[in-house]
Amino acid sequence: SFCKKEDHNEENLFNSLNYDVAAKKRKKDLLNNKAKIQYFHQEKWIYVHKGSTKERHGYCTLGEAFNRLDFSSAILDSRRFNYVVRLLELIAKSQLTSLSGIAQKNYMNILEKVVQKVLEDQQNIRLIRELLQTLYTSLCTLVQRVGKSVLVGNINMWVHRMEAILHWQQQLNNIQITRPAFKGTTFTDLPLCLQLNIMQRLSDGRDLVSLGQVAPDLQVLSEDRLLWKKLCQYHFTDRQIRKRLILSDKGQLDWKKMYFKLIRCYPRKEQYGDTLQLCRHCHILSWKGTDHPCTANNPETCSTSLSPQDFINLFRF
C-alpha cells in the first residue's frame, strides 16, 4: 500500500513538472510571437547592400524585401499606387522564379487587393489589365517548364492562381463605369484653353485618344499637333525623335503617329508621385518619409529615389 502511494505521488510530481515546463514554453512562445509581430510592424525599412552574400551582414533577397516593405498599405495611397503596380509588372516579367514561396503568396495577395481596389474605384482599369495579361503570359511559359522546378509550390496551386487571374480579367472586362450624379460644371463646359491645358497634363497618349472619343469637340482638341509634340518631347530625347520622323500628307511632322511609333521602340519616361528611397550613407531602403536609424549628419541629402527597375536591380547579385 505504501509503495503504491509513493508511486502515485511520483507520477503526480512528474505530471506537475511536465505541466510547468509546457506552461513556461507556451508563455515564452507567446512572448516571442508578440515581440516578432511588434518588431515587424515597427520596422518599415530594410538594409540592402550591392554584392551581399549569406555570410555577410545585410544579406537580403528580393522576396524578403517584397515581404518586409509595406506594399499592402502603399497601394491604398494614390501617390504610390502606380509605383507598386509597375513593380508587380516587372516581377511578373522576369523575377517570379526568384521569389520564395512566402513572397509569391504575398505577391498574389497584394495583386488581389489591387484588383479589388480597381473594381471598387473604377480607376486604372487599363493599367491592371496589362499587369494581369503580363503575369498570365509569364505563368503560362513557366508552367510548361514545370519539370525543371522553376516555380515554388505544387503545380495545381499555380493552375488555381491562373484561374483566379482569368476571373479577375473577366471582372475587369465586365465593369460598367457609372456616370456620376454631379450636375455642376463639367469638363466640356470649361473654356477651350483650360481644356487644352488639362489635356497637356496627361502623360499617356492612349488617355488622349480615349478622351477624344467622349465628344466631337474633344476629338478636335485631342488631335492638336502641339499637344502630341509636347508629349513626344516629354518621353523621348531629340535623338530618338529624329530617328523616327514621320511626315503627314501636308508635309508636316505627324507627332501623333510618331508618338505611337516611338513607344514601340523606346521606353517611356516613368512618373510617380512617391517612390522608394535608398540612403546612400547606410544602405537602408524605405518609403519616403519613413524614419530609419541613419548616422549621417544630414540624412535628407543622402536619400536617392529609386525607380521600380532600380529597386529590382538592387537584388541582382
Automatic annotation (TrEMBL):
InterPro entries in alphabetical order: F-box-like_dom_sf (IPR036047), FBX25/32 (IPR040394)
Pathway: Protein modification; protein ubiquitination
Localization terms from the record: Cytoplasm; Nucleus
Keywords, in A-Z order: Cytoplasm, Nucleus, Ubl conjugation pathway
Principal cellular location given in the protein's record: cytoplasm
GO biological process terms on file: protein ubiquitination
Superkingdom assignment: Eukaryota
Gene Ontology annotations for the cellular component aspect, listed alphabetically: cytoplasm; nucleus; SCF ubiquitin ligase complex
Task performed by this protein: Substrate recognition component of a SCF (SKP1-CUL1-F-box protein) E3 ubiquitin-protein ligase complex which mediates the ubiquitination and subsequent proteasomal degradation of target proteins. Probably recognizes and binds to phosphorylated target proteins during skeletal muscle atrophy. Recognizes TERF1.
Assembly notes: Part of the SCF (SKP1-CUL1-F-box) E3 ubiquitin-protein ligase complex SCF(FBXO32) formed of CUL1, SKP1, RBX1 and FBXO32.
Name of the protein in its database record: F-box only protein 32
Gene giving rise to this polypeptide: Fbxo32
